[in-house]
Amino acid sequence: MPNSKFEIRSFEKLLENVYDKKLSCVVKLSPTSDEQILAFKSKLRKKLRKAEKKGFNIRLGGVELFDDFYDLYSKKVRSFRAPGFSITESNKWIFEILHELGITIDSSVFAAKRGHGGLSKYSTSKPSIQSYSGAELKEFPINTHSVLRLQLIFSGGGYFRLFSYPFTKHFSKKSDYTMTYFHPSGFDYEQPIILELSSLRKFISYVGFRKCKSKLEQWIHDFESIDLDTAIKQTDWNQAQFLELAEVQQKDTSI
Question: Are residues 136 and 83 in the same domain?
Answer without folding.
Answer: yes
